[in-house]
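Message: Study each token:
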Amino acid sequence: MAKAAAKPTSSGGGKNKKKKWSKGKVKDKANNAVVFDKTTYDKLFKEAPTYKLVTPSVLVDRLRINGSLARVAIRELAAKGLIRPVSLHKSQLIYTRATKAEDEVKKETADEE
């Protein structure tokens, strides 16, 4: 009879509160520019050639432009000789700043030929 009088301390029935699912983390919407304005365009040609690593991701992050605009900007910087390619893969273009020492070496080899 003594065993029947003792109640279990934790009842596992439906009385416990159900665990709710978290809604997940909400990412803030990036408000990146779709076209160049004058200030961003000037900033691109002033600052981007000084970056040690120039990729579309870096330009998107620092200049607040979208990815397609960053790829076009990199092509334009490379065409003007302000940056030089390190790796040209279709999904990630990696460039670095063009230094004067490399330009002098290229001129010397061109003169020899």
Observations:
- The chain has a mean pLDDT of 81.
- The helical segments are 2-5, 38-47, 56-63, 67-79, 100-112.
- Residues 67-79 form the longest helix (13 residues).
- Residues 8 and 50 are 72 Å apart (CA to CA).
